[in-house]
Design goal:
Chains A, B: InterPro entries: CPQ, Peptidase_M28. The structure is a homodimer. Chain A is of the alpha/beta class. Chain A contains 17 helices and 20 strands. In chain A, the strands form 4 sheets. The first copy, chain A, has an 8-stranded mixed sheet with strand order 1-11-13-12-16-20-17-18, sandwiched between helices. Chain A is globular and about 75 Å long. The two termini of chain A are 41 Å apart.
Chain lengths: 564, 564
């Protein structure tokens, strides 16, 4: 709080008078809707990016192509100043060239399998016996497997249980769910989903705390001359390929490079081989894992472009929109977060094709490194807006920095005073049903007025709750108005998130058109209104201190009767 | 009808008095339920058959293993006379040894793909350019592609459209649906689903009528020296592998052997490559299709075993239970029709382990060749019970015989007089909710009485409607009481039927236990009651003839005023 008072620009933004009525331009609403629904290019952007460039793992050659392609496209549609901006150094580039898994004995079967990200290459197909090794947790566990793994393919981990009743694939938020989201949570629990920054580090310590041992297991398997490791992940034609399945979170760093080739395989394949081995039936597989490393310490880049502001007094002020351009690799990252990327591009295209002259500058940021630690957007925020101060608790050595508790309020940079707001979409392909206002009570009425003419598009709900896990978070951490839209969930959590099913066919063209129109309108409104958007309180405002002298019979040092 | 009167044995069965009240043994119901629910082996049968033996394509070495394994298991559980019985000559044996498809250009991708049944081998991996060829329908279509296909992989057929809203995977029949099934259809439409035998041949002629041209297309591709063909089938991690996707229904016959290697691939992979080629992006893939042919003109076998009858007057009479042991190959045939197989085996095991002494003989028939034409069960019926007379309309030359219209009533054989009934289960893993009585009105009250004590298991509904597409049909065609149970649909039609998702994990253990208990009870009741089950009318009773002389003013030759 103290910090906010000191910062002229920020204090101005917080203190700017906010009119009770928004002066929205309904003619512009009509033009944006017409362009976005009747002359959309969002699915063409999608096909070129997902089908042609394909998956975009941070640091990979395909990521580089995607950066360059987005820069070109943004220039082609009429944006100014389209460029790539480094957010810092990343680890190794990596590409899956090919992967397959076939059972040879007791009988032939074709299994669903892909390389885990940053898996070393196994080269050409290798045929080997399979051995089942349950999760190893201690040095003693490792010792028991010494001398037993040479030349084997390891079926590693706990066998997943699959309920024969599948979850419904498709979910839509209904009126009751949205009404609930629109209610301020009087119990004080503001988090709707996956809020990253937390004072309770136990979850993250649990997730990252055994990295060293995980790496030790991989090195042990390699030292024992095992051929490869197969881990289960996903069922029903879905396999999940994020680094939660690898031997450590930091496998993209050369100093943590995974020691043994690994594939993630369908739970049904894992189950079949597990049951056979449990019944003492020998299992042999033919495994192919072809991967390629392409460099180390490469810079990671965001793609940035603008529609310049036209009001001499406001043109240095900025409203931003974005999504992350990077993805995992089993699919093509169409919904995570290709959808957010092409919707933001299409919103910019709608505005440029209408020839709008916004008062403030409208800027798109397409981030990378999101999947490994929100690197692109937090690097951008650090460089432009605020310096973060994290706690550096030794217990959190393995926890990525952006997940750590802040030790002090961020130190704001002058550019922070110019940012009106940031809008993000990263919950799949579902249409926009509202927006998470992230505890920024001042903004609710503004957004409600913007949304009133969008009711027929299903855009109805302002929730004061927080949502997390993506690129608006660094903005919020810096006390800047960063917002994620409320999206219809569809099959994001049940099917596409971080899986081989995250492909073009999972996109809903009509929902993506709707989202593009709404993003364009939000950008336009933010760029045109007289005042900047109201800001939230800076982080580190702290918790309420207990009142003192409240209980007449309380002792000063807490010892009963000490006063006597 | 006339035929029925002539056949002593059949007439006796049809004419046997049927008491109004069934004399069921509730103590035996309890014992069967206890054995079936508390000491079930149905899932162990499942794992051994699906995980170890794997898919069981008719004519394949795995099919032979499955025949032998079922014979051994039926003997081991205490059945008598377990043996394999030929149903006639089949075509070529075939095994998929391995299959994979990877995109190389414009970027790497791992696609979901498997060989289509009886595809020739491509041998080791071949890398080639992809060319898109839409469905060819005429010689002119073929001519247009001459000289353009050498060395190419062909993406063949119409690009499937995928709705981003997936169908619900799981379906359960509710009370209203079952109540509807239980109502006699006063509009005369007796068919609930897929009734094969029909006087309207247009559907089948449509399906099979262009076989010759389909084969011509494959031969054209081969003559043009194309490398392989990729056809779309299935979405969302599912690929479908029956011969509806191959170049002709009869690819298992040496004289119709497919001329070119083929894989069925996920619709999403087909879509991605189609969109790229439409955008003039060259596509290169690496394809591996390793298949093996293992013989021709081999006999097809059913596995048969019995619990001998103990009543000297009735022991030559038989009640049968079954399912088909063969399957397609992308999965392991766990639900189609592994479920029916292991439930029938478990029903027999329950009865043998309880040491029952049935009055009539209880016989299990595990059929093969079902997927190619219900060959096993219709061969069995032809050999033992009735000779069929089909129309042999030249227009139906390509339509399999069992689908053709009957030209005359079947000629019954003496053994037909001894068959009381046949029970079949072949609609997936879902529990039994009732039974289709196939228009046999005499049997409704009997089954209702048997089912009354099974209401708590969900077994409630007798439907007089017909159901089709599986092994009870030949019994019905011969005028014998052959029944298929009503099953809870679950994810059979949405996910597992003829797909790579038809695996052990898709089985519902609790539903399979329920089905085993109910089959055992139905077998026991049929074997123990005084009379055989009432029979339906023989086929070919014909339709009602119009009454004559009904309209006073009608002329004899239909010419108005001719009478004057």
């Amino acid at each position: 709080m103290a910090a906010a008072v000191c910062l002229g620009g920020v204090a101005v933004a917080m203190g700017q008078p906010q009119p009770a009525s928004e002066n929205v331009d309904l003619a512009m609403y009509s033009r944006i809707r017409d362009e976005g629904f009747n002359r959309s290019h969002v699915m063409e952007y999608g096909s070129a990016l997902f089908d042609d460039i394909g998956p975009r793992l941070t640091g990979s050659p395909a990521m580089k192509k995607a950066n360059e392609w987005t820069r070109q496209q943004l220039t082609a549609m009429g944006c100014a100043n389209a460029h790539l901006e480094s957010w810092g150094e990343f680890g190794m580039g990596w590409t899956q060239k090919g992967a397959s898994l076939e059972m040879m004995k007791p009988g032939p079967a074709v299994f669903l399998a892909q390389a885990t990200p940053w898996s070393p290459s196994l080269g050409k197909a290798v045929t080997a016996e399979v051995v089942r090794v349950p999760s190893l947790k201690t040095q003693k566990d490792l010792d028991e497997w010494k001398g037993k793994l040479a030349g084997k393919v390891i079926l590693y981990g706990d066998a997943p249980k699959i309920n024969p009743d599948p979850k419904p694939l498709l979910e839509h938020y209904d009126v009751a769910k949205l009404a609930g989201l629109g209610q301020y949570p009087l119990d004080g629990d503001m988090s709707e989903q996956g809020v990253l920054q937390s004072t309770d580090m136990s979850f993250w310590r649990g997730l990252f705390g055994d990295l060293a041992f995980k790496e030790k297991v991989a090195k042990f398997f390699a030292a024992e001359k095992a051929v490869a490791v197969l881990t289960p992940g996903g069922s029903g034609g879905v396999i999940e390929d994020d680094t939660l399945g690898t031997f450590g979170w930091y496998v993209y760093r050369a100093d943590h490079k995974q020691a043994i080739p690994e594939m993630v395989i369908a739970n049904e394949a894992f189950g079949r081989m597990s049951r056979l081995l449990a019944a003492k039936v020998p299992v042999t597989v033919k495994a192919e894992i072809e991967t390629e490393f392409s460099g180390d310490h490469e810079q990671g880049y965001n793609t940035i472009a603008e529609i310049p502001g036209s009001d001499p007094a406001l043109k240095d002020q900025v409203v931003m929109v974005g999504g992350h351009l990077d993805s995992w690799i089993a699919g093509t990252g169409a919904t995570d977060n290709g959808a957010g990327t092409i919707v933001a591009m299409e919103a910019m295209r709608i505005l440029t094709s209408l020839g709008v002259k916004p008062r403030r500058t409208i800027r798109i940021g397409l981030w990378s490194g999101e999947e490994q630690g929100i690197f692109g957007s937090s690097g951008y925020v650090s460089k432009h807006f605020a310096e973060f101060k994290f706690s550096k608790d030794p217990k959190d050595a393995d926890v990525p920095e952006f997940l750590q508790t802040m030790a002090a309020a961020p130190v704001m940079k002058p550019e922070a005073a110019q940012l009106s707001g940031y809008f993000n979409m990263d919950n799949g392909t579902g249409k926009l049903l509202g927006i998470y206002a992230e505890g920024n009570a001042g903004i609710g009425s503004i957004f409600q007025q913007w949304m009133a003419p969008l009711k027929d598009l299903g855009m109805t709900t302002v929730s004061l709750r927080n949502t997390g896990s993506t690129d608006h978070v660094p903005f919020q951490m810096a006390g800047l108005p960063g917002f994620q839209f409320i999206q219809d969930p569809r099959d994001y959590e049940t099917r596409t998130h971080h899986t081989n099913q995250d492909v073009y066919e999972r996109l809903s063209p009509s929902d993506l058109k709707q989202a593009s129109v709404i993003e364009a309108i939000f950008l336009y409104n933010t760029a045109m209104r007289d005042a900047m958007l109201p800001r939230p309180e800076l982080p580190m405002a702290g918790e309420a201190k207990p009142l003192e002298g409240l209980f007449l019979d309380a002792t000063k040092d807490g010892k009963k009767g000490a006063k006597k």
